[in-house]
Amino acid sequence: MNNLADLNHEIERLRLLLNGYMSESSLTHPRILELSQKLDKLIVKHYRLASQLKSSPT
To answer: TM spans, by residue (predicted)?
Structure first.
């Protein structure tokens, strides 16, 4: 998963999963915490990759 399209897809997938769990469970449910952490990491990876692409010469 090294391009922005893949990252965007995975971020959206995790957001949908997370929204589903949040509507059914406590915010401290282990699955919600796990998905939140994965989502945070992917967002950081997306930001770093986008920054690299913006700063690299074309």
So the answer is: none
pTM, entire model: 0.80
Residue type, 52: Q
CA distances from 6 to 23, 28, 31, 40 (A): 26, 28, 22, 15
Which tens digit of pLDDT belongs to each residue from 2-34? 789 999 999 999 999 999 888 888 878 898 899
Distance CA(20)–CA(3), nearest Å, equals 26
Please name each of the domains of the chain with its CATH number.
Answer: 4-55 (4.10.280)
Distance CA 14, CA 30 (A): 15
